[in-house]
Amino acid sequence: MMKHVLSGLLSAAFLTLATDTVLAQENAPAPAASHDAAAPAGEHAGAEGEAHGGTPHFPIKKPAQMSWSFAGPFGHYDKAQLQRGLKVYTEVCSACHSMNLVAFRTLRGLGYSEAQVKAFAANYEVQDGPNAEGEMYTRKALPSDHFPSPFANAEAAAAANNGAAPPDMSLLAKARGIERGFPTFVFDIFTQYQEGGPDYIHALLTGYQEPPKGVEVAPGTHYNPYFANAAALAMAKPLNDGQVTYDDGAPATVDQYSRDVAAFLMWAAEPHLEERKRTGFMVMIFLVIFTGLIYLTKRAVYAAKDH
Amino acid sequence: MSGEHSTYTPTSGLERWVDSRLPLPRLLHDSFVAYPVPRNLNYAYTFGAMLSVMLLVQIVSGVVLAMHYAAETTVAFNSVEKIMRDVNHGWLLRYMHANGASFFFIAVYLHIARGLYYGSYKAPREILWILGVVIYLLMMATGFMGYVLPWGQMSFWGATVITGFFSAFPLVGEWIQQFLLGGFAVDNPTLNRFFALHYLLPFMIAGVVVLHIWALHVTGQTNPTGVEVKTKTDTVPFTPYATLKDALGVSVFLIVFAWFIFYMPNYLGHPDNYIPANSLKTPAHIVPEWYYLPFYAMLRAITFNVGPIDSKLGGVLVMFGAIIILFFLPWLDTSKVRSAVYRPLYKLFFWLFVANAILLGWLGSRPAEGVYVILSQLGTLYYFGFFLVVMPVLGFVEKPKRIPNSITEAVLQKRPGGTPAAL
Fold first, then answer.
1. pLDDT for B418
2. Where are the domains of chain A?
3. CB distance from B258 to chain A under 8 Å?
């Protein structure tokens, strides 16, 4: 049976592989052949793709696969990196992006003490109330509060940003991810690749560049070949070298900022990742031993069966 | 079990007391201990056990999730995130439930493929097969409504697209769609009724599963030879033989399941579903969950009008037809031989069917344009051709291999140096 299943899967794989090749040839000059991430961006930009036929395909370039401390079966967060990422978020991103699912108390996960979390929360003002007089009032944030939004509501956020509200960052690292394509998505099952979000965020933040010759971007947008939905996006390049001062000696570069904030956003989106992977390892050990015991029992019982 | 004498003997006074009042222990003993199963069952016959386990996992995790979930459009998304962040082991429950749906479908597809390969749907097991298709339909409805509950972008737009199919039917279509949605568009009433139904349907599945197993125990299981059980030497008792084989199958299945829950819980989901539903912002590609993709590909393959049937209605008819046709399988297959092992041509067409289903699944995830459309059309043609042409015709033209006289003979032939004399 196993042999049949395998041969079935293989034949299916060959079929899809064959069609993939056909596609790559048919669409050679168009961005549809997104498999060749290394191809020069100039040939792939927006307008030409649209002219070639049907929907233009974005992103123009696929994000590079970075190495993350939280990848793989024993993945864990690098607390120093998360703290740096928090600094980048607080000093840069939080000017426009809310993160309203994350409570200050959870910052303990970044290695801060209770007192440090309390002090950090106290930097923020939140609205509370109504009080006994029926009035709303503002007070210093407590660890139980969530990060307050930079704008009063979504409409205010949109009005201040050319009509499109900047996305909330609580889940950003899980809410983004570029399709991996065949056959990479098959290999991903075995390599446990789950870092599409942080890879994308890093690629986008480091990917701002001058548009290639002949490519026009709409006014108010900024060319970035890594952007998922178009050739250019509304957000201007948010990070520059030296913009955030690190106190642990990490390089003050856009690349480093981007890695740190991407790691921080992964934590914000998945605060229980370490616990999950740790539990998983124990479950795996249990299941493997359990399966082994059942296998031995089954073999012994079948061997004793009269013929 | 049918016609056989019960071998249950109550040993203690309490057991005798219960047995003379409600012989439930006797029923369980006869069904899961003494019940004779063909001695040659292979691991393809263990998916039923996996499915039972998955149904239990889904119901238990689902009931606990429902204690923390709020089915209201303004809070649904955040209530799921609350489960993920603040509920003790909430992340485990939710990832188990979300990936559990996928693994439920993996098991059911393998189970259905096993049935197709070994001809499990043929007389006298037609009702058994039809009940299975009913379970599959209920699963699809349950899975679809469950995916709407987190109220992310794909939840919302998936619900919009799929309920939109019903509007393709002439005269009653609009009415059916509004009846399903509880309004003119996907909104709070939709979420509420989907939650109610998502909670209800698994228990209906459990009910049909009981009928499915009842029918199985009346006709007895098929086996890789397709030859019916003739003598006692053809069978072994369910416990310990089938129990242990099932346990091993389930255990290996759980390892793969755990791999996904703990190491790649979001692999099978879509990133867009971590964006709260927004009725003003359509995602670039609306893609259903992977287990619907072959049907989605067939829906979109119909890009042309056929007489009075426009392409939209045509697509919807083809999609529903692709499932409805399964009900008629027992009568579409004209071959007297059950198992593909003795049907060289059918075996070939069967594996082509499997490859075609995987290809259609992949095509369902692609945008509907260019060569993908043509491939989807070819895939749809083969899907229906397999049931409507290959199955009826093969019964007449295929020359089956020699079929063993009994299960015992087949088992002994396979054994190196084994002859019937070894009995």
1. 52
2. 103-145
3. yes
